[in-house]
Fold this sequence. Notes:
About 45% of the residues lie in helices and about 0% in strands. It is an all-alpha fold.
Amino acid sequence: MCPHCGTRYDDWDHGGEGQEDRYTAVLQKCVGCEVIADKQAELAASGESTHGMKVALVPVAAQAALDAIRDLKKQHTQDDD
């Protein structure tokens, strides 16, 4: 099986001209991939080092919870000083 497209060689018609294949190529737009590409371009244009950087899609609620935890830890650290 091809790791890129998921088909096998035998899935395709090898009978010759005029015979239909089992698949047809269609265009699909993935908004998630578009957002990732936009963020990667933004990062590259910023001049920051991109070594080791990956762009990931995280649910908004999960990111809000992580931000809240980070803020609480920062506040707790400041209170200890």
